[in-house]
Write a structure and sequence with these properties.
Layout: H1 4-30, H2 38-69, H3 77-106, H4 121-124, H5 130-154, H6 169-188, H7 207-213, H8 216-223, H9 239-250, E1 269-275, H10 280-283, H11 292-295, H12 297-305, E2 307-313, H13 319-328, H14 342-345, H15 351-356, E3 361-366, H16 375-382, E4 386-388, H17 395-398, H18 407-420, E5 425-430, H19 448-468, E6 476-482, H20 494-497, E7 498-504, E8 513-515, E9 519-520, H21 524-531, E10 554-559, E11 562-567, E12 571-575, H22 586-605
Parallel strand pairs: 1-5, 1-6, 2-8, 2-9, 3-4, 3-5
Antiparallel strand pairs: 2-7, 6-7, 10-11, 11-12
Helix pairs in contact: 1-2, 1-3, 1-5, 1-6, 1-7, 2-3, 2-6, 2-7, 3-5, 9-22, 12-19, 18-19
């Protein structure tokens, strides 16, 4: 006999050990010429441990329920759980062997896209020999037997306290409830805002090591529901017709020639400040009693002293979407977050890597939980080699905002760090205080939402003034733009997506300039790289808006099952829930064509 708590602990630990030991086996059999050291192996096991704990917690839920139920009804735990152990052993074994076998071909962790091939197993196995398949089948069987034996053996036939003997039942219930709470914390990945995700295991610029740290079972099951056949979504017209519209929209501005030169140097240090929700709601408030002078005076002062892009259209309505548009030069989708899909992330264009290849050091600062929505995995894959987040600050500082470290603290940290970085460097900074619940330590305005904007605006002004009076300023380009707008007393119409961007710093050659050309956030990458004399061929959906070939300025934006199309004449909003025909004319056809073609391209990325 064994106590229920001891059973759950042993069951959980056995699973964790199994998952941890899988990592060196994966590295050994899937490496395909990749070089790694013992230190790399230990790092893989360490950084993947949290995900292993989470996966083990999920698998332990059913045994925990059986243990709890046995306090009220008489049962044989081993007999009851035997079918579950068989299914679990086969599933874990099949997943692990499939992951090792497919990785050399796919170069990404096992995910739900494998199910797309199950309807044609003959084609899926056509490129491997019979011997190859037999070895894998035997490996699956042997590994399943080992897992089953371990799980079954640790499961007792009876527990110490039976339903007929109430003595000790209360203590057992309390112990199991505590254990259940700990399992819940393990499976969600802790108590922070972000839940466990694949990017949590990423730690290296070597993607093979990152992939080795990811638990394959977690990767597979977490992707179910996210992996879709995008080529079947949003079908409005023939592929040929859609491609015509797509080409006319994205095949302009695809060169690095310049109609206007904005910089006085080709190799400035570059700081991109991605300001949380800092769109027109904050920079041009349409609320009685408030104005741009009262809410964001520093933003406008900086704009007047720098270069104002007054017709920037945000691609989407969430931070994860906006970040991908800015740092990958890629459009957004109505109901799909590209950042949350590791396999897609690895195939997206990488702005930080473009700078890395030019000899820049790359850094990213965010005062919140960098694991949220797979942000860490995305940033590392994008090419950022130094990541600074909430855990790099003191415990006291981490509690200064609901989302993490208050803007005043991160802005000060940024200013000090920039003074000490060796040139050239490329730096991304995402603010957070101007996000709901809009709690900031100072009251500058009566309106709570606008007060948070005024607070961040003051932090921005202080940073710019400090940098302007330092040696950093002379060779500095600062790009300031929102991740998205704040939906406040308005709807997802054109006024929500139309926003602004500022370029400032000692590296600009045309202070006081306003550029009113329509553009998307996704065009920032190509426009910036062209000004630096760097190639844009790796950013096929980003347009250099300052090229003479950018002859039909336009923007395409998406929100939850809807899109916006804008040009120099007008803008339309199309609600896809009102399909098939909303009567919006040519712009509606353009938007549908873009969405259909983009889904085709996204489908190719998931293959």
């Amino acid at each position: 006999m064994r106590s229920r708590l001891t059973f759950i602990i042993r069951y959980f630990v056995i699973l964790v050990v199994i998952f941890i030991l899988q990592k060196p086996l994966f590295m050994l059999f899937a490496w395909e010429g990749q070089s790694f050291s013992l230190s790399d192996c230990l790092k893989v096991m360490y950084h993947g441990a949290a995900m292993d704990l989470s996966t083990a917690a999920y698998v332990s839920i059913i045994p925990w329920i059986v243990a709890l139920a046995s306090l009220f009804i008489k049962l044989n735990p081993r007999k009851v759980l035997r079918p579950y152990h068989i299914i679990t052993a086969i599933a874990l074994s099949l997943i692990f062997v499939a992951d090792i076998s497919l990785y050399p071909f796919w170069q990404f962790k096992l995910d739900a896209s494998v199910f797309l091939y199950l309807d044609s197993p003959g084609e899926a196995t056509a490129s491997v020999s019979t011997g190859y398949l037999i070895i894998r089948i035997l490996a699956i069987a042997a590994y399943a037997i080992i897992i089953y034996a371990l799980l079954n053996r640790t499961t007792p036939k009876t527990f110490e306290t039976s339903p007929e003997k109430p003595k000790g039942r209360v203590a057992s219930i309390a112990a199991l409830l505590i254990a259940g709470g700990l399992l819940f914390l393990a499976l969600r990945g802790g108590v922070k805002e972000s839940v466990m995700n694949v990017g949590r295991a990423y730690f290296s610029d070597n993607q093979f090591l990152n992939h080795s740290a990811v638990n394959p079972a977690f990767s597979l099951f977490s992707s179910i529901g996210k992996s879709k056949d995008f080529k079947k979504q949003y079908r409005f017209m023939s592929k040929e017709k859609a491609e015509v519209y797509f080409g006319s929209f994205y095949n302009q501005g695809r060169d690095t020639s310049l109609s206007i030169k904005l910089l006085n140097t080709r190799r400035p240090n570059v700081l991109i400040i991605e300001m949380e929700s800092f769109g027109s709601t904050y920079t041009d408030p349409q609320i009685p009693g408030y104005s741009r002078e009262t809410v964001t005076p520093n933003w406008w002062r900086i704009a007047e002293e720098g270069i104002l892009f007054s017709n920037l259209w945000c691609n989407s309505y969430r931070t994860d979407r906006g970040t991908v548009s800015i740092f990958s030069g890629y459009p957004a989708f109505p109901k799909t977050s590209l950042m949350k899909q590791p396999k897609v992330v690895e195939k997206l264009p990488r702005l930080a890597e473009a700078f890395l290849n030019e000899g820049y050091s790359t850094h990213f600062l965010y005062g919140g939980d960098i694991n949220f929505t797979n942000t860490k995995g995305y940033l590392i894959t994008n090419g950022f080699r130094s990541l600074i987040a909430d855990t790099d600050f003191s415990q006291k500082e981490q509690k200064t905002n609901k989302w993490g470290v208050d803007d005043a603290i991160t802005f000060r940290f940024l200013e000090k760090q920039l003074r000490n970085l060796e040139s050239p460097w490329f730096y991304g900074f995402l603010t957070l205080s101007s996000h709901e619940p809009f709690d900031v330590p100072e009251k500058l305005l009566e309106d709570k939402v606008l007060n948070s904007a005024a607070y961040t605006d003051r932090c921005l002004g202080t940073l710019m003034d400090s940098l302007r009076n330092s040696p950093v300023w002379d060779n500095l380009l600062v790009v300031i733009l929102p991740d998205h707008n704040m939906l406040y007393r308005q709807s997802y119409g054109p006024e929500y997506f139309k926003n602004r961007m500022i370029w400032t710093g000692g590296a600009i050659s045309a202070p006081g300039t306003e550029i009113n050309t329509i553009m998307n956030q996704s065009d920032v990458a190509a426009t910036l790289l062209a000004q630096l004399g760097m190639g844009i061929e790796d950013f096929p959906l980003s347009r250099n808006i300052l090229s003479p070939s950018y002859t039909a300025p336009s923007a395409f934006c998406c929100y939850n099952n809807g899109f916006i199309v804008a040009d120099t004449i007008s803008a339309i909003t199309c609600d896809l829930d009102k399909m098939p025909d909303t009567g919006l004319g040519e712009k509606e056809a353009v938007g549908k064509a873009l969405l259909q073609s983009l889904c085709d391209k996204l489908g190719a990325l998931t293959q």
